[in-house]
Amino acid sequence: MLQRLFHPLQRFSLASLLWARHPLLSLPSVVVASFAQQSYSPSTRHLQYSSSLNSMKTDDLLDACILPLSSKSHKGSSGRIGILGGSERYTGAPYYAGMAALHVGSDLAFVFCAQEAALAIKSYSPELMVAPVYSAQEFNSHVDRSSSSSTEKQVELLIDNMVSQVVPLLDQMHVVVIGPGLGRCPLVLKATAKIIQQAMERNIFLIIDADGLFLLTQEPFRN
Q1: CB of 62 closer than 8 Å to CB of 157
Q2: Dihedral sign of CA atoms 53, 17, 203, 78 in order
Q3: Model-level pTM?
Q4: Three-class secondary structure assignment of 55-73
């Protein structure tokens, strides 16, 4: 019954959050929400993951949301969620993604965002841990400059700096959400693509949403 309430994409997100809530669930070890392919080809892992969720009885699915108390548990044992999103213009989406994760039982929610968005997101809730990982003003200034005044080396350095701010934190996460409020700055999207690749190499669960889906429709990143 519970599964019927969710669209396949929503079931995928629900399963990812359940796994973050209960990392010991016997679900596939690697799932990547790459919606660049036309949805749910049998050759992808999406159906494997959705099938794992569908095969669970409703009682088992609900039980997975409630962890048994243990003297060995600590803050973070019930799920650590990373959210890459939040730009100069869009600050609400990563807040709602983080709070949704906390409300379903995850312990910790981290938001990796633009410096210009950090203060606003922090002010929405003290429960979110907010880490500014790039300057939207600096990125936009390089996009606006002509090629003669902004060299390819400068741009790559800027992108790599953003990637280096996020990647060391990936190993602490059970699930990473990519896209809420990310915006469509082409340099931010290039950095995000590199971060997605790093997360995939680490077998970290990904939920791709919003501007993250837009990223995967762009020619350089479709595959």
Answers
A1: no
A2: negative
A3: 0.72
A4: CCCHHHHHHCCCCCCCCCC
